[in-house]
Write the structure tokens for this entry.
Amino acid sequence: MIMNDVLLNNVLLNGIKDMIYVMEVRNGQYIYSFINQAVREFAGFSDDILGKTIQEVVSEEKWLFLLEKYDTVLLQKDSLVFEDYYPSPMGETRYAENTLTPIFNEDQECTHIVAVTKDITKRKIAERKAEKSKEMLIEGKQRYQSLFDYNLDAVLTLDENGYAITGNRSLEVMTGYTSQEVAGKRYNALVVEEDKDKCQKYFRLALDGILEEFRIRIRNKDNQIVELIVKLTPIVVNNEIVGIYVICKDITALINMRNRFNESENMFQIITEHSRDLITVLNHDGEIIYVSPSYKDILGYDEISYVGEKFYYNLHPDDIGQVKKTFELSKNSKEAWVEQFRQRHKTDGWIWSELHGSPIYDNRNQFKYMVVVSRDISLRKDYETELEYFANHDVLTGLPNRRYFIDRFEQELLSTKGKTNLALIILDLDDFKPVNDSYGHEMGDHVIIEFGKRIKEVVRKSDVVARLGGDEFVVLLPDISSKDQVVDIASRIVSNVEKPWNIQGTEIHLTASVGVAYSSQKLESVHSFLRTADGALYEVKNNGGNNYKLISI
């Protein structure tokens, strides 16, 4: 019998990897009477807690939480499973699934409660990542669907074999066919016979990643010819082309206008006088011989002030060379041309425009005119600039993000080539999670923003501060004169963070842990710097935080 007890005790103590607590129930108190080796290893408790109550061992918040669970087991006389978190000996927050099981004596009185604590940290982290990925996927799909559905251009989605999958509303308006009617048909099913070979050529080029704009004609459901400008864009998933987007702009009206111009200049004038685009006619030398009245409304200048000037009159100096070049190429190749450029508005300065130029030839195939239709694309350019900004900056803080930081660091390594000293700082807040838990995520967001500001306050103007994620930030220190200079910056960051924080009227006290990687006259990789600084950071964390650690590489 003694051997059985010893064997049982050894199994509980060492053989089970889950943490096991045996709590004695005595006079409404729960007293630690046994813990196994896993408790010592993962929770950091020792035999000193044996004989003590829960209240004597854990914090008041934790005690009240556990007391409710243990009282429930005692009252219901049944097992209870719940999830919880606890700090590891390394200061990390770990998540656990706890099972409380009551033990009864012969009189059916609960004398002990056995708590089995299973570490589920990996599962919880995976669940959170999965949920975040799901949210991002849903948002991305909604954004894509909105762009797809409400695009003024017709958009058709093809598989890699050229069969239609779906189309947007504009496609139905353009062709008369619904998305369901188009699905499963070859991409060139509506293309007129004379243009099918051209269509096949550009489809193959798109599959090879070569993107070109081309014109074709199709027959709509009413058997009418529709003139289109088409762009084929590959759909890339995991670095593989899995399909093609066909983006079609109906230019039938423009073609008809051009034909009417060839037939009658008077009819052309009627059209241009009612156009909201800028319509310009150039002679062989690129001189302006006609501009539409819309110049006054769109650019603020009387159209007469342009006549007789070169086409690049009032264009941005940096864009003149390219516009002149493409004008000559179009004139000599007899092909239409597209160009983006900046031109001067009378009161608003430089505005972005996009032109579509078409060379016109007489019946002897001699160049006669260049008809240029251009429009203001400032809003589109602003949107592209905004997209570029958000691709490289953190939405919450406005600071550079990981992508921008890595690119900038790599550029710095290439430019210095080991001629100057570099340093990298990684830092995060100590005990940031309790701020979120106690005050909510909105408060946590304000803390993150303030953290970034405090870092910026003490670094140099030439230094780059970026947010990696969560409360983790990174600083690139280029052109460092000495190790002492790095130490001074790291020390000032720690001191600045340690000052009292007033967030939305609430005063809180936070500290930061700072890890520094320093390289003197030696070219290292970005990841080498990050790895070294991260190791230094966790040394500080393990020693209580609120400090910095510098490691030379």
